[in-house]
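Internal QA ticket QA-208
Title: Verify multi-chain structure generation after dependency bump
Assignee: T.L.

Test input:
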Amino acid sequence: MDPAPFQLSNGVPLQAYLVLAALLFCTGVWGLINSRNAVRVLMSIELMLNAVNINLMAFSSYLDGQLIRGQVFAIFVITVAAAEAAVGLAILLSLYRNRDTVDMERFNLLRW
Amino acid sequence: MTIAITTQLICFVALAAALVLGALGVVLLPNIVYSAFLLGGVFLSVAGLYLLLNASFVAAAQVLVYVGAVNVLILFAIMLVNKREDLSAIPGLGVRRLLSGLVCGGLFALLLRVAFTTPWALPGPLPVGEEATIRIGEHLFSDYLLPFELASVLLLMAMIGAIVLARRDVLSCDIGTGEAVDQGLIEKARTPLLLDRSTP
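Actual output:
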């Protein structure tokens, strides 16, 4: 066993990838909550999905080097993200046609 | 991939800096077009990270699907809904931003704690390296065959759903008279159905 996994002489540590993915995910969450433009909300969702993918790939490379199941999962996440982006943007387009705005604060038809 | 460790570190730091700055730009820049192009930069940096992790196939898929499809789709959506509107100020926006920033900071601290206190089983098995693509193919056609087939059905459903949701209401014949109407691809001017009457 390696006594010091944090030493930079071993290359990039696993924790560096985890911290990077956490930062990306939190940025995505902040953007998701605070965006007024509906397109930017979809972009924030893509950021969060990419953060999850970075985590999956890092675990697959560091902890599951022989059966790289994380990479297969990442491919499925990419597939679902593409489908989500297409349907989300179609919904957004239909919403824009019907309400004539992309402001998230004015999409409140179903709110009490 | 056999890269010297120093080169790996330099590449990682450069890609991480591009990733974080690009992500901040995506959520903070006021111009949505700049955000969309920065999002493409973020996707490319993520693909670079995948290359550092010896995953050339997923990196190629990332570039093809995200940069080539999702980002272009987002740019098209921006062009289609491109109306310069001044967003009306809402009360308590600063407080909301501060509070959500605190929540996200707390989430980040929690994730940091998890990342640094969990005893990861390092070092794991030896990475397969360049054989990753072969392994992914074996997985997709043996133990992950059902999700693979379901993904194709999902993509078909998403495609049909997106077409149904986003198509224009152009009819080839007049409903009243039944005569063929030559309107081609011209979108009919119609009043939005769900306009908010209360707020101007």
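Spot checks passed. Chain A touches chain B through 85 residues (CB under 8 Å).
Status: verified.
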